[in-house]
Design a protein that fits this description.
With about 425 residues, the chain is of the alpha/beta class. The chain is built from 10 helices and 29 strands. It has helices at about 45-55, 70-80, 110-115, 120-125, 140-150, 215-225, 235-245, 275-280, 395-400, 410-420, and strands at about 15-20, 40, 45, 60-65, 90-95, 130-135, 135-140, 155-165, 170-175, 180-185, 200-210, 245-250, 265-270, 310, 315, 320, 320-325, 325, 330-335, 335-340, 340-345, 350, 355-360, 365, 370-375, 380-385, 390, 400, 410. It starts with 12 loop residues before the first strand and ends with a helix.
């Protein structure tokens, strides 16, 4: 569907990305950065997925609300997303919690993060608002969701996933009728409502909402006057509209982007260390569940100017090689082995070292003879020569952050303690 001028609806929309969350379940990975700023996939940050979806969908006005430890996120967006041009009727606004409404108020919730910037949004006069979470991994065409929103006459359209009922307890869950009109919206229910005709599955919110801008502002202003509100979309705004207006569910299957070889609709909340680890390793499969090589739907990010990756030495036991791995720019694999791993920018591996199922964030240095398996190394970690991780669960748990599935997170502070 197009508007009366013949333009796609996305051209009259603004994407507003909520990127202020800490992501505390990622433990030390978010000690110094917000969850959307966490590295992912060898070259990207988590926030790049929502932003790339918006650009690829045709949306040319974007705002990003930041709050928790936002410096690395803001720096990344300034470097990677500064190509928007006002003369082309494009805009990209970074909106920290700057206490613009009151000197006492930071963003109190997801809805408040939009409410506090109403004047900035109004200056662009978008007809539609696409509210996005900035901390999920997926590819989606928001134009298709906008079309459903307009065609259905909804007050709000909510992006949703079909999930097994037993997995829905951690989400906002929708009860719907046969026309996908939402009849109830409950946060993290113990007994989730199921899909009509499918008692084994439920509809879980993706944290994606489409509104007409005027209607959204009316709801935000109403909510701001309610002293009992928590200023949250899922907790306050959406349940009110479900009760007093028309809310419609949009299924991810109707707008997900899949390259020819992708066999499933890929969406991941990488909010735990295990989920983050597995989603990164998904990319190392021969036919990955998420295709980062899809030129028709690229994931835009900061393009660092750096030397190509290099592999050196060719002796038995000391051969620079990588198997089923992603190796980024400025990496040097010197007589070492990387197997089913991701080496982000600037990683150096010393001779006789090896990594197996490893997510190595930028500018780490792995000493000679070290053996690492099922690890996440935070940025800038220097692994001592001969260190072994992943072979002694008890010792690993004493020295590092070890998950129930045996993934070890290692940061610089842990190595400093180890070295005394």
């Amino acid at each position: 569907m197009r508007d009366v001028t013949g333009r796609p609806l996305a051209r009259d929309a603004m994407a507003y990305v909520l990127a202020g969350g800490r992501g505390s379940r990622l433990k030390e990975l978010t000690d110094n950065r917000a969850k959307p700023a966490v590295y992912f996939g060898g070259v990207s940050r988590i926030v790049d997925f929502a932003l790339s979806n918006a650009i690829n969908s045709g949306i040319r006005r974007i705002g990003v609300a930041t709050q928790y430890k936002a410096h690395s996120l803001i720096r990344h967006m300034q470097r990677a997303w500064n190509f928007m041009r006002p003369e082309r009727n494009e805009s990209f606004d970074i909106l920290p919690a700057s206490q613009r409404i009151s000197e006492l108020h930071w963003y109190e919730g997801t809805a408040d993060a939009v409410f506090q910037n109403i004047d900035i949004i109004e200056s662009y006069a978008p007809r539609y608002m696409v509210i996005l979470a900035g901390d999920h991994i997926y590819k989606m065409d928001y134009e298709l969701m906008l079309q459903q929103h307009v065609n259905s006459g909804a007050d709000v359209t909510i992006g949703c996933l079909v999930v097994p009922k037993k997995d829905a307890t951690g989400f906002g869950v929708m009860a719907v009728d046969k026309s996908n009109v939402i009849t109830a919206f409950v946060e993290k229910p113990a007994d989730p409502p199921t899909i009509p005709g499918d008692p084994a599955h439920a509809l879980a919110s993706m944290g994606i909402y489409v509104f007409e801008t005027k209607f959204l502002f009316e709801q935000l202003r109403r909510d701001a006057e309610d002293p009992t509100s928590t200023r949250d979309f899922g907790g306050d705004i959406i349940p009110y509209i479900v009760k007093h207006g028309k809310a419609v569910a949009h299924r991810f299957t109707d707008s997900c982007i899949r390259a020819a070889e992708e066999i499933e609709e890929y969406w991941r909340d990488v909010g735990t260390l295990d989920a983050y680890f597995e989603a990164n390793l998904d990319l190392t499969d021969t036919v990955p569940k998420l295709n980062m090589y899809d030129r028709d739907w690229p994931i835009w990010t900061d393009q660092i100017v750096a030397a190509p990756a290099k592999f050196v030495h060719d002796e038995d036991g000391r051969r620079g090689q990588a198997i089923s791995s992603l190796i980024s720019q400025d990496c040097i694999v010197s007589g070492a082995l990387a197997k089913r791993s991701l080496l982000f920018t600037g990683v150096k591996m010393g001779s006789w070292s090896s990594v197996d199922e490893a997510v190595i964030l930028p500018y780490c240095n792995i000493g000679r003879g070290a053996r690492l398996s099922r690890v996440i190394l935070d940025t800038g970690v220097r692994i001592p020569e001969g260190l072994v991780v992943g072979e002694d669960p008890v010792l690993d748990a004493q020295r590092f952050r070890r998950t129930e599935s045996g993934v070890c997170l290692i940061n610089k502070a842990m190595i400093k303690r180890l070295e005394g």
